[in-house]
């Protein structure tokens, strides 16, 4: 039983303020006061009062019960102090945040599983429900770039023509596209359809038309060409690829191989295609074509991700992620039905598609896709689309911080910036410079079963990729944890030599972030892995971690958890690293750089830190067969730029006499990851990719890179 205080005005106080004229007899001097009584009461910490959503669950109980009289001159100070104290206590404990998230999980979870039980597990039905509920709400707000237009004065407004589709209009367009895909191109419910396009309403319309027909979309990274593109179509079993004319240059050189080797037809979405689409009638596929038998773990969309095997792998994005997780994420970032999310992140990636677009289209909010990212017009586009939320990856925020002031960087309505990879050193700068009240930092992998979230306001939680109160932290600890890695081999978890089991990392001890598979006999229900690649899928599962027979998903990321339940990203483990928001496969880079010159004997690729840049930049260590023959740097650059996605081309190259190894013949990649730049005195030089040429890196270049004057 606890004592709760409630504050009310005394009757004398009300009478005094109502009658300021002096009565006939001189009154006794009295200070206006409040009466406070004491009454025992169980506190209602989950009371749905006005403060619970503002992070002050303690104020509501405090305004109930009284003990003594307090002068009103003290009241404002007491209430303000109580508010500040309550807000601080909430920031430290996150009681109401936990309650808010648990309530959202229950509400969205019940809705999802009820619809799954009815055979409506697909996101399509959530979209249709939103169309019925919010037919006139904006669904897509597109800042379409006007070709050839130049800015007038300091304003960039004239560079864009804002196109808006209401929910009903978007639905009508999707049905027209569905008719075209079905009747002209023969798309059926059993097909996988590749979509290779830049951000625009057309991407979303084709995507949802594929879902309407019961087919599976496969999103292609439009930077891919040649072998990487061909590989994606093969392993994804795509029957048709629809291509944006703006990226057709990466596709046309491989058309013959795409047809003969991948058995995939190619359709360019040109003027003839758009004319046929505009003239098409509506078609809604019957429900039975959308596979009512599907489960929540069945495939909603294929999204390609790089990994240790080299070429991109089609990660299976389940309906649970597409529908339930996207809805819950929208709840976590306070996205309402009058909200607008502006994102210049590419829709071929899960960050934009699953956590940017889908949270909007099942709750009546609008999605505003930027054609491509621009530091110059970012804030203008956010302003023109009336964005309440913007989406980022770490590089985005640093680029914006380093950019010259924009005339629109504070003339916006943005309340939340959300995404992943914002670093602590720019976190506060970003909020203060651009007037952003809240940051919604998350951690997740395209193929991973779980993620973390940190809805950060105020001073606590800066830099964390996830943060929870005690209650939610205790719940999540049953599903995800951190375990130390082997100090001799970071690709392996440390195991007790006597028991053979792992241990949970201590507070602030870095370790690999792992996520539990509840049913080790049916891993696919939690972790769907990669289509047609059992080896890669199984490599992500670690068994017998804490007890015999258990199973956990390995994220491959080094993470630490402190006493305040804040998760912090430390580094990427193993043979991949992050650059330009993409996973770069070291084995793929090693293969292609090694094939660029017949005099190359061995290549070791790692990611290295560069000041003022997020992630790690590619660094290739090369051993030549004949060290007396000068390496052909132009040839290496030309071949690598042609064969690799641009983000995977190594930014730095160093030629060595020997590749250093450990006693058990393993390459010492850690040493190369910590390479001193530009190079140690007396060591061989390091070359960097300046434009399309490798040139020697000197101290001046390195200083310019470190200060942000030169962008990689």
Report what the structure shows.
Helix 11 crosses helix 12 and helix 14 crosses helix 15. The N terminus is likely disordered. Helices cover 31% and strands 24% of the residues. The chain is globular and about 70 Å long. A six-stranded mixed beta sheet has the order 11-10-8-9-12-13. A six-stranded mixed beta sheet has the order 15-14-16-17-18-19. The chain folds into four domains: 92 residues, no CATH class; 345 residues, 3-Layer(aba) Sandwich (Rossmann fold), CATH 3.40.50; 96 residues, Luciferase, Domain 3 (Luciferase, domain 3); 131 residues, ANL, C-terminal domain (GMP Synthetase, Chain A, domain 3), CATH 3.30.300. The chain has 21 helices and 34 strands. The chain is α/β, with parallel strands linked by helices. Keywords: ATP-binding, Cell membrane, Ligase, Lipid droplet, Lipid transport, Membrane, Nucleotide-binding, Peroxisome, Transmembrane, Transmembrane helix, Transport. It holds the Pfam family AMP-binding_C. Belongs to the ATP-dependent AMP-binding enzyme family. It catalyses: a very long-chain fatty acid + ATP + CoA = a very long-chain fatty acyl-CoA + AMP + diphosphate. This is Very long-chain fatty acid transport protein.
């Amino acid at each position: 039983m606890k004592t709760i205080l409630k504050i009310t005005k005394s009757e004398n106080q009300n009478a005094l303020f109502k009658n300021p004229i002096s009565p006939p007899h001189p009154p006794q001097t009295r200070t206006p006061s409040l009466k406070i009584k004491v009454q025992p009461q169980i506190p209602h910490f989950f009371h749905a009062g006005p403060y619970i959503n503002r992070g002050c669950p303690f104020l509501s109980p405090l305004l109930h019960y009284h003990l003594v009289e307090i002068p009103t001159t003290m009241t404002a100070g007491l209430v303000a102090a109580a508010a500040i104290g309550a807000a601080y206590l909430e920031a430290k404990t996150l009681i109401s945040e936990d309650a808010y998230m648990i309530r959202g999980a229950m509400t969205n979870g019940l809705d999802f599983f009820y619809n799954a039980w009815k055979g409506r597990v697909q996101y399509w039905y959530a979209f249709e429900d939103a169309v019925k509920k919010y037919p006139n709400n904006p669904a897509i707000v597109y800042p379409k770039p006007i070709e050839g237009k130049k800015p007038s004065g300091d304003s960039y407004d004239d560079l864009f023509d804002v196109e808006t589709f209401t929910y009903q209009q978007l639905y009508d367009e999707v049905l027209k596209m569905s008719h075209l895909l079905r009747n002209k191109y023969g798309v059926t419910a059993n097909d996988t359809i590749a979509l290779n396009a830049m951000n625009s309403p057309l991407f979303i319309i084709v995507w949802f038309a594929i879902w309407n027909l019961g087919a599976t979309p496969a999103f292609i990274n439009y930077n891919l060409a040649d072998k990487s593109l061909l590989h994606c179509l093969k392993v994804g079993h795509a029957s048709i690829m629809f291509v944006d004319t703006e990226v057709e240059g990466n596709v046309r050189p491989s058309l013959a191989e795409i047809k003969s080797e991948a058995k995939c037809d190619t359709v360019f979405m040109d003027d003839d295609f758009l004319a046929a689409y505009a003239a098409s009638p509506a078609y809604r596929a019957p429900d039975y074509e959308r596979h009512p038998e599907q489960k929540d773990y069945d495939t909603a969309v294929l999204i390609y991700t790089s990994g240790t095997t080299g070429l991109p792998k089609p990660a299976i994005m389940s309906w649970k992620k597409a529908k339930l997780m996207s809805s819950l994420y929208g709840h976590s970032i306070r996205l309402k039905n009058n909200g607008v999310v502006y994102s210049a992140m590419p829709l071929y990636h899960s960050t934009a598609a699953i956590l940017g677009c889908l949270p909007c289209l099942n709750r009546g909010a609008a999605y505003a896709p930027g054609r491509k990212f621009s530091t110059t017009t970012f804030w203008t586009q956010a302003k023109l689309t009336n964005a309440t939320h913007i989406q980022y990856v770490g590089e985005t925020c640093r680029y914006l911080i380093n950019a010259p002031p924009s005339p629109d960087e504070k003339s916006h309505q943005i309340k939340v910036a959300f995404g992943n990879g914002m670093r602590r050193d720019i976190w506060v700068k970003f909020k203060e410079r651009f007037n952003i009240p809240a940051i919604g930092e998350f951690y997740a992998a395209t193929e991973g079963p779980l993620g973390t979230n940190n809805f950060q306001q105020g001073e606590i939680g800066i830099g964390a990729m996830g943060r929870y109160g005690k209650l939610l932290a205790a719940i999540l600890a049953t599903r995800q944890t951190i375990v130390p890695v082997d100090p001799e081999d970071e690709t392996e978890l440390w195991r007790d030599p006597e028991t053979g089991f792992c241990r949970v990392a201590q507070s602030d001890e870095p370790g690999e972030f792992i996520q539990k598979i509840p049913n080790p006999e049916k891993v696919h229900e939690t972790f769907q892995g990669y289509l047609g690649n059992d080896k890669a899928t199984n490599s992500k599962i670690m068994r017998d971690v804490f007890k015999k027979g258990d199973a956990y998903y390995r994220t491959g990321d080094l993470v630490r958890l402190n006493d305040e339940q804040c998760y912090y990203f430390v580094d990427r483990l193993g043979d991949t690293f992050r650059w330009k928001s993409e996973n770069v496969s070291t084995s793929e880079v090693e293969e292609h750089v090694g094939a660029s010159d017949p005099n190359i004997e061995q290549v070791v690729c790692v990611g290295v830190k560069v000041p003022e840049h997020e992630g790690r930049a590619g660094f290739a260590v090369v051993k030549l067969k004949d060290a007396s023959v000068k390496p052909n740097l132009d040839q290496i650059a030309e071949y690598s730029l042609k064969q690799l996605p641009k983000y995977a081309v190594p930014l730095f190259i160093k030629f060595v006499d020997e590749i250093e190894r450990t006693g058990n013949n393993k390459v010492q990649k850690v040493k190369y990851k910590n390479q001193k730049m530009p190079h140690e005195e007396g060591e061989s030089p390091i070359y960097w990719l300046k434009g399309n040429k490798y040139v020697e890196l000197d101290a001046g270049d390195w200083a310019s890179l470190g200060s942000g004057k030169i962008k990689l």
